Each structure stands twice: as structure tokens, then as C-alpha cells.
User: Fold Nucleotide-binding protein BZJ21_02770 from Salinivibrio costicola subsp. alcaliphilus.
Amino acid sequence: MPSFDIVSEIDKVELKNAVDNANRELATRFDFRGVEANFDLDKEAVKVIAEADFQVNQMMDMLRSNLAKRGVDARAMDIQEMVHSGKSFSQQVKFKNGIETPVAKKITKAIKDAKMKVQTQIQGEQVRVTGKKRDDLQAVIQLIKDSDFEQPFQFENFRD
Assistant:
């Protein structure tokens, strides 16, 4: 029986490359000369540190553009509140990895509401879709791509 998995993962190597590129760009920018500012990557979170809040906002734009250049979807970003401590401002950016249960339930509900002849199963941080026809599965993929769940999805393990 044909099936595939809906997953949401970010490429950690590309994330690291994007942060490295953003740090290099930061070193060459004239408006950041003599300013203590940097991007710190810690597993799946990036901490943006600068001396002023407007500089943090500029750095967020730099990070988004470098992520786009490296092919990391900006919808995977979960931006936290800006924190002011001492003479520096910082902002934490976490990246969504895996499909949380409420989002998985929304995906399942959207597929059921479309009245497609497929079955869905939530398996941990992914959703498995099975059906009798390959065309039905491709229609589900198109449905997920067209709808907005505020998270990027990949489709893996397509089996006939």
C-alpha cells in the first residue's frame, strides 16, 4: 500500500553555515564597526546579541537573508522576546524541529475535511499517510503545500 511521511526538519549544517555567514557579514558592515554584536549558535537555537535594540532588529534581517540563501525556511524560526541586560540586548531564535501534536492534529483534520481516500497516523513527531492510489497521496502533498500551518514540511519515505 503506498505511503509517505510528513516531517518538519531543518538542515543543521545549513543553519550553521547561515550563522557563520551572518557573523562574517556582521564583521564587514560599516554600521557595526566598533560595536559588540554577534550571533551565537547553540544546537538548534541562535542568540542574537547587540548593544541596541535596533541593531538586534537589523541583525535579525541579516539572519533571515542568510537563511534564505542557504535554503532554510524562515517559517521554522520561533523568535523569542528581546531581553535587555546591562548594556546589551539579546534575542533568542529557536528553530522548530519535528511536528508537535496540535499541528499534527490540524494536518490530520485538514486531510479528513478534504474527504480524500487516505488514512493518517500520528507517529511521534511525524505524520504517516497511506492510501490505495498514488494520485491520492500526491493530492495530499499538494494540499499540505497549499495550506498554511506556519511551519515548513518535507515529505519522505514515499513508497509504492
